[in-house]
Amino acid sequence: MHIVSLAGGIGGARFLRGLRAAAPDADITVIGNTGDDITLFGLRVCPDLDTVMYTLGGGIDEEQGWGRAKESHVVKEELAAYGVEPQWFGLGDRDFATHIVRSQMLEAGYPLSQITEALCARWQPGVRLLPMSDDRCETHVVINDAQGRRAVHFQEWWVRLRASVPAESIALVGVDTARPAPGVLEAIASADFVIFPPSNPVVSIGTILQVPGIREALLPKTVVGVSPIIGGAPVRGMADACLTAIGVETTAQAVLDLYGSDLVNGWLVAEEDADVSLSGVQVEARPLLMNSPDATTALARAALTLAQALTP
Length: 312
Ligand code: GDP
Ligand code: CA
Fold this sequence. Notes:
Elements: E1 2-7, H1 10-22, E2 27-32, E3 38-40, E4 43-45, H2 47-57, H3 74-81, H4 93-107, H5 112-123, E5 128-131, E6 138-145, E7 148-153, H6 154-160, E8 169-173, H7 184-190, E9 193-196, H8 205-210, H9 214-218, E10 223-226, E11 229-230, E12 233-234, H10 239-245, H11 252-259, E13 266-269, E14 282-285, H12 293-310
Parallel strand pairs: 1-2, 1-9, 2-5, 9-10, 10-13, 13-14
Antiparallel strand pairs: 3-4, 6-7, 6-8, 11-12
This protein binds guanosine-5'-diphosphate (GDP) and calcium ion.
């Protein structure tokens, strides 16, 4: 069995851990979001790829959901002592090493897909982790605050401003000329079915779907999605701010409508959203909270079972 999953950061990574447990014999290919990537202190940082790699590789800070376990912050403090900006993005010492290796390899001419494979050789995530593209494309957000109307990097809006300033629009800069990373379209073509974890529908899944060719490749496939929205609110984070920016309500129904019945064949919602429906989509209500390993595995198993039932 070959399963393809798209993934952002925390929501995606946690779900994938459940999927690996629910389907221990399956080949799983993960197509990771790189729209959140940012260059800091001359280093290329790929937050979502690293969250998936650390989570599946056993190196994640479990409570925080991102970054390394047993982390220290000496380098960050030293940079701050020099007054070097930005100081709002938390990079720990252990994490810095990952970004140094990645940046060194980029400088030497390796594509991000090969670098990700090299980093995963250490972490052994038990899935094949591919960036959505080797071409640089970054999510930027247009905001209008006391400093005026301007576009900022997604991370500045998300991390520094905690999405407290409304986004007027969200754009994936560079996507027009981006190509899917080597292996992405092949993985989708050979997949038995595809699963969308409860990742952010705008800046994680939505970003991956914008890479030319990926959405088209998914259309003939059986796709089952898990709602990141329960009872009108994101389970964690500020996905509502992203949905509002693109004019979509923060409901499991609106996210399903956004994906559309041409793309998604099955949709898992929480019990309180059992009235969600869309012609051509099989909607099932299940416990959607990934609050323990068992609950997460059960959720992944529910997605698997539905995908298998819908696969011709
Ligand atoms: P990020 O890149 O770290 O923001 O992570 P993702 O894009 O992968 O996932 C973020 C989304 O995961 C948010 O919209 C949350 O609502 C959703 N999420 C987090 N925990 C859970 C959970 O336990 N259950 C469900 N259904 N969604 C969750
Ligand atoms: Ca992310």
